[in-house]
Amino acid sequence: MTFRSKEAHQVNSRNMNQPIISVENLAKRYLIGRLTEKGDGLRHVLERLIRAPMGWLRSGSGQRRAKTEEFWALRDLNLEVAQGDVIGIIGRNGAGKSTLLKILSRITEPTQGRVRLRGRCASLLEVGTGFHPELTGRENIFLNGAILGMSRLEIKRRFDEIVAFSEINRFLDTPVKRYSSGMYVRLAFAVAAHLEPDILIVDEVLAVGDVEFQKKCLGKMKDVASQGGRTVLFVSHNMAAVQNLCTRGILLDRGRILSDGNISSVIGEYTRRASCMSRNSLRTRADRAGKGDVIITDVAILDAQGKPACGCIAGTELKLRLSYSVRPGIKLQNNCSIDVCIERNMKCLTNLSTAFPSRVPLILEGDGHLDFRIPELPLSKATYLLSTYVQADGATQDWVQDAFELQVVAGDFFGTGKNCHDGWSGEYVLVKHTWEQHSANGSRSATGANNHALS
């Protein structure tokens, strides 16, 4: 296993026939294990100690270590990136995206294979990466610039631009440990983008910032890519941002490249693969996150007779049934909620939650199911993905991204006798409304329901 980097300060002097990033047979392995107990409370420990004291001592104070397992975050990955490429790296949680970027940024060493970088690399992977919490924003600009290989003179030359872009002028001489996560991201991105790196690597960390600043960052990355032929690697779950910024896409799954090509075709492949998840049992999904005292085991659409359906018509009733399973002997009744996010192109259009409609507390015990009902589904004809989330006792219990696929077909949402999708393209949220028209002399000449949609 080797890891090599060749620094070059002049992009145009580089051999244009050579890729700026070369990845050969890359693999990254982690060893995982967990501690298991019969129970995790003091009562369980005392109970085992009284019933079987010798067995409790032999087991090591009641704990047993599970067998250590190998987890390959990346496996046999080969990749070449040309100078000036703007690449969107997409995939589900756990696909290996962040691991790949950490290796390219020289934060993590690979287990096998070789990575070669032919240029100066700036990365923004986590909030505050490369910052010292005790130093001020001003001092961290110079520290971070030095880490990126910039001279003090170069940093001074771009200093005012960095501060103006980050919009933290008032807090420039405040220690960054007092910054909010959004302020961290503003300053970190400003430094990474303005110190003229040959390769700019950005992970999902931009999602921490507000919408206006995200747009500003995307615009800056476009400028970085278009001016001087710099290379950008961008990881995000925001497919609209990826498609708008990138020209090439790479789809990762379980540490391997499934698709590499035009960004539109790669996003299409990702969406098609995600839609197949609706046919898989949620009980066996390995990519879920959370404590796991309760999990969602199934999602189903029900028709008016309560039977499973394949989809829903726009404007008709949608009943969504979520089946859940709680660990035996556990009763969850503190701040419990079950949420469903309806997404399109990785954007949450609306959220269904037990926390919103009423103050009736949700209690989770044993196995059961929960029904969400939407009297008139306000979505246009399209395929949507549903993500499920369970919270209890102040902790995330279960989170499954892209848990189910919802097919919506065109319907007479406005009661006009026509499909609401007629004459429109794209996906949109439907809103019932009225319109009035007034002639030049001020008299009303028409009123009625319109079948327009809100983009």
CATH top level of the largest domain is Alpha Beta
CATH topology of the largest domain: Rossmann fold
The helical percent reads: 10-25%
Radius of gyration, in angstroms, nearest whole number: 26 Å
For the largest beta sheet, what order do the strands appear in spatially? Answer: 8-9-10-6-11-12
Show unreliable segments.
Answer: 1-14, 34-40, 445-455
Distance between the termini: 51 Å
CATH-assigned homologous superfamily of the largest domain: P-loop containing nucleotide triphosphate hydrolases
Keywords for this entry:
single chain, alpha/beta, Rossmann fold, 6-stranded mixed β-sheet, 22% helix, disordered N terminus, disordered C terminus
Helix-strand blueprint:
Blueprint (H helix, E strand, L loop, with lengths): L1 E5 L14 E12 L2 E2 L5 H10 L1 H6 L5 E2 L3 E13 L4 E5 L6 H8 L7 E7 L2 E4 L12 H11 L4 H15 L14 H14 L4 E4 L8 H16 L4 E5 L3 H7 L2 E6 L2 E7 H13 L18 E9 L5 E2 L1 E3 L4 E9 L4 E2 L4 E8 L2 E7 L10 E2 L1 E8 L7 E11 L2 E15 L24 E5 L5 E6 L6
Helix pairs in contact: 4-5, 4-6, 5-6, 6-7
Explain what you see.
It contains 9 helices and 25 strands. With 455 residues, it is an alpha/beta fold. It has 3 domains: 2-13 and 82-275, Rossmann fold, CATH 3.40.50; 34-67, no CATH class; 280-409, Coagulation Factor XIII, Chain A, domain 1 (Distorted Sandwich), CATH 2.70.50.60. The relative contact order is 0.10. Mean pLDDT is 77; it is low at 1-14, 34-40 and 445-455.
Provide a short characterization of the protein structure.
Helix content is 22%, strand content 35%. With 455 residues, it is of the alpha/beta class.
